[in-house]
Give the backbone structure.
Amino acid sequence: MKQVNFILRLLIVLMAVLILNSIISAQQKIKILIVYYSLTGTTEQMAIGVKEGVERDSNATATLKKVDEVTSKILNAVDGIVLGSPTYWGNISNPMKKFLDDIGFLGDKVGGAFATGAMKTGGKEHVVVSLLLALLMKGAIIVGPVYDFGAFQSGAFGASAMTGPPDNGVSELELEDARKLGERVATIAGQMKSGTAVNVKTHSRQLPKGFNLQQNFPNPFNPETKINYELPNRSRVLLKVFNELGEEVRTLVDKEQFAGKYQVQWDGRDNNYKHVATGVYFYQLSMEGAAQTKKMLLLR
Ligand SMILES: Cc1cc2nc3c(=O)[nH]c(=O)nc-3n(C[C@H](O)[C@H](O)[C@H](O)COP(=O)(O)O)c2cc1C
């Protein structure tokens, strides 16, 4: 009987520890809030894309809120905020403007923005820039596309979708940009919170000693993988992906780069942004006087 009692107590203690642990780890997760206004649903679709992107980061959680649902309590509890608005007359929609007028200081939260608009040149970028500037003026650290890290395919400053004719609605490419935005905001918010955001001074003093191409990760992969490499000195750099027949599939880097550590993401698309098939691919990094090749496996 005594033994049964002891085991029961042990179990209760164990369960309490487990529950406590999960509460603590949930609290430590990076929280990203996505705030949007949407009348006919396209901006909402992009907002859902951003949420999916945030959730690609296993350390982050995302909450979707319509612009009139946000309270200061919700706002205070998050590490990052992503704003989305349709374009109305080349400008931010009024409900989002009101929201921006009402919110206070966002000190050190990470911010990003996205927009929709019916026309190709109808002001979407203007909306994204205005949203980002509003976030910046409220103390946020704003992030956008990072060219060596998988640039957005539409939109120069944030994700954006052209929702009018001829294609009507949000395309997969535009949704993927929304996901990339979410992922990027979550990554930077995580780095800010843990204090691992790159310190430019220390970083630049620790220059790599050799030319080094690392194994991609994840590998095998689907749909994206990351490739790290190090350059010991400034050089013209080429990073290309080839198929098994030795045909070039994608140029990931083609430019002059300083000595340092770099990370490039490959989204499994060729130079025409078409998805490539399952298979073995080679990636080759070359700089003046040196080249290295490694193998990776894409499994669709
Ligand atoms: C009053 C009004 C003004 C608009 N002005 C523009 C505009 O200046 N430029 C543009 O590209 N689209 C404009 N649009 C189209 C919307 O931005 C577009 O349909 C958007 O995707 C709608 O987002 P929602 O589906 O989230 O409501 C306008 C729409 C309305 C209703």
